[in-house]
Design goal:
The protein contains 4 helices and 8 strands; from the N terminus they run βαβαβββαβββα. The protein is of the alpha/beta class. 29% of the residues are buried.
Length: 163
């Protein structure tokens, strides 16, 4: 990975989600439900859901990255854990912000395989090293990505440093 950063602006984010939704639609895949990988996938999933007119979203809270380049041993679900039976027999579109190592997406895909009739994945960014290749990708990069929703530190850390 290079030291250069991929900067995603809010305007580009809107275009990226619209492009991804268009790719899904153009492929002929008609998801019944979107499974969003929280937290990074929440905003893309909501945007793609609006673009595809899909109101049914299931949020899986997954913890894996603990910092830049640091992870837990394996991805894991964190509370609240939903009742996944809502995706039984349905066509599922898994949405996340990035397929970096791909381990989180693979983990979520394996959960969905227990219920869904068909599964596809969509991400804003896919990195070359990912273990799960996504069907829908807005951009491929090997750079560190600065997303508009996580570019600034949490508000509570800003307030603590100002005190």
């Amino acid at each position: 990975m290079t030291d250069e950063r991929e900067i995603l602006t809010w305007d580009e984010f809107g275009e990226a989600c619209r492009d991804l939704a268009g790719s899904v639609w153009d492929s002929g895949f008609r998801p019944d439900i979107i499974v969003c990988v929280a937290r990074g996938g929440l905003l893309p999933a909501g945007s793609i859901g609006y673009a595809l007119d899909i109101k049914s979203l299931l949020v899986l809270n997954v913890e894996f990255y603990t910092g830049i380049g640091t992870t837990l041993l394996d991805p894991r679900l964190v509370d609240p854990v939903p009742d996944n039976h809502g995706m039984a027999g349905k066509r599922v579109l898994i949405v996340d912000d990035v397929a970096d190592s791909g381990r989180t997406l693979k983990f979520v895909h394996e959960i969905c395989e227990q219920y869904a009739s068909e599964i596809r994945t969509a991400v804003l960014y896919e990195k070359p090293r990912t273990v799960l290749k996504c069907e829908y990708v807005w951009k491929r990069t090997d750079r560190w990505i600065a997303f508009p929703w996580s570019a600034l530190p949490p508000v509570n850390s800003q307030k603590n440093s100002e005190a």
